Amino acid sequence: MAIVTETARAGITCDLQKHHLEEDCRQLLNEPNLFTDVTILVDGQRFPAHKLFLAMRSPVFAAMFSHKLKENETNEVHIEDTDPEVVQAMLEFIYTDRVSNITPLARDLLAVADKYNLVGLKTMCEEKLYETLQTDNAGEILMLAEMYGSSDFVSCVIGFVSDHFRDIVQTEAFDEVNSVEILKRLMDALAAKKRRRAHA
Amino acid sequence: MAIVTETARAGITCDLQKHHLEEDCRQLLNEPNLFTDVTILVDGQRFPAHKLFLAMRSPVFAAMFSHKLKENETNEVHIEDTDPEVVQAMLEFIYTDRVSNITPLARDLLAVADKYNLVGLKTMCEEKLYETLQTDNAGEILMLAEMYGSSDFVSCVIGFVSDHFRDIVQTEAFDEVNSVEILKRLMDALAAKKRRRAHA
């Protein structure tokens, strides 16, 4: 009996690379009334959402919805410390792994990602902030890194500041750096650089 | 003030390609007790699941859980017409877009994917069946395609059968082909081939 060669099957077209899962999750964001069971309230705006998605992505939401907390009984989460557009971007990340407008929101999103322990979103914000790092904003980003950033991110920003220390130390943003720990880490980095130079 | 070049930022490592969403969805499959709200029962086995995920992926489940059907009130879905391992593979697809062991299950999964209108799973099964298409199973796959397959898949299998008609017509599997519609479509394909040869 003839065994048919591969070329005989060339006619079929399948697109297995297509990620239906991602599309289906994004669809939930676009049709938010399908099975929503919680509302996020920020500054008078209401964002319907799904406890399962929030909990699946954030251990903080998971804990909130696993216990008899007020949020879990009223099905409302009030967020006081950020803006509606930041919460909207956080929800976009939660449902789709993407944030379409991250650049102007990276600072505020980093704080929210830290609060809700959204590791992937935190990394996205850190990369965006690192891209925009310059002498005149390095002091500000160093303080943000210290408050909300991962330890990798803090190390990277300290590395950048020590590499451009002469310029950065004169900036207004650097005047605002008021963490003893960060200033000591920066001094260590500068001293290590000096030692490397002396040995070179 | 110095503008820092790209090379100065080479230190940071971020992996934005990593799909946290897919991992987080897969996690739900591995820790099935987190917020599960429905159980699928097959042949005495119980699979805890989430209505939201089933509904997000399958319009049939979406309809089931949107109305006052028995399944939605008892939070149990009884599936009678397939095996536990097929349901487990279907759940793996629903939560992860993948099926780790598709080859031996492709026939049964195609039927389940058709029943619950899981388009991506259907395509995966069709591609797998098309890969295994040979003269001695072509009749069987033609019948499967007619019962459960997409119209593209039916066309592809008919193309294959008409290309290897002389061998396939003698097989036992072809004896089982008992659909008038399919036989007529096959005859059309053979006649079209003859006409093309006559014109060549």
Automatic annotation (TrEMBL), chains A, B:
InterPro entries: BTB/POZ_dom, SKP1/BTB/POZ_sf. Residues 36-103 form the BTB domain. Gene3D superfamilies: 1.25.40.420, Potassium Channel Kv1.1, Chain A. SMART domains: BTB. Coiled coil: none annotated. It comes from the Eukaryota. Pfam families: BTB. This is BTB domain-containing protein. It comes from Bracon brevicornis.
